[in-house]
Amino acid sequence: MAIFLYVIIVLALLIIFSSIRIIDQYEKGVVFTLGKFTSIRNPGLNFVVPIIQRMVVVDMRVRTTDIEKQQVMTKDNVPVDVNGVVFFKVNKVDDAIIKVQDYEYAIAQYSQTALRDVIGGMTLDTVLVERQQIGEEIRKIVDKETDQWGLDVQVIKLQDIEVPDDLKRIMSRQAAAEREKRAVVIKSEGDRDAAKNLAAAASVMAKSRGAMQLRTLQTLDGLGPTASNTVVMALPVEVMEFLQKLAKKQ
User: Fold this and answer.
1) Do residues 153 and 146 lie in contact, with contact meaning Cβ atoms separated by under 8 Å?
2) Can you give the residue range of the structural domain that contains 28?
3) Number of separate domains in the chain
4) pLDDT along the chain (250 residues), means of 10
């Protein structure tokens, strides 16, 4: 009799311990009784009836899943390899468990399809420049569909966009040509401004008496005392001014 009582106590303790479930703060539990959804359990100490009840614990934190690299044809018929990452969280644990078999795999596959559709409607230049816009458009499409699965898509980011090697070389030559073009334009604008400034300076010196002599002396002083510097003046400045005055009188 004592042995039988001991066995009953041990079995009771085993049943009690097997029925204990601890749910962390960032989790929730979905309870099925005889295969039917019956309740949602919150974080803390919970009990389920062994054999009769089963609880599936769901992580409620923001999660990430990769969009595998795939080749997509753009609107202007350029093949590009694109991959990305999806940030999402579970809003309704019962829908996430009951309405879709594997919500993480499902959202990754749906994101792949949406990515192909969005990039397929854009040109290569737009794809390379508007990464954030593309990610937002994909997010809207995926979020609308996965909302019925109890999921909330936070953001979708494109990670890598790879173009063919021959196209990379063409784009590199194009970029070099654009930089050379800008350099020529900047140099020509500088030459134009310099010419305007020189013309203005010449006009001021022509109107100011002795300005030309002062400029000549400054130039000679700037040459420095190096013996290798030799300056040959064909005519003195005074003679040049005399000839100019003589030409005006005539």
Assistant:
1) yes
2) 2-59
3) 2
4) 74 76 91 92 89 90 90 86 92 92 91 90 85 90 90 90 72 66 76 74 63 59 59 55 58
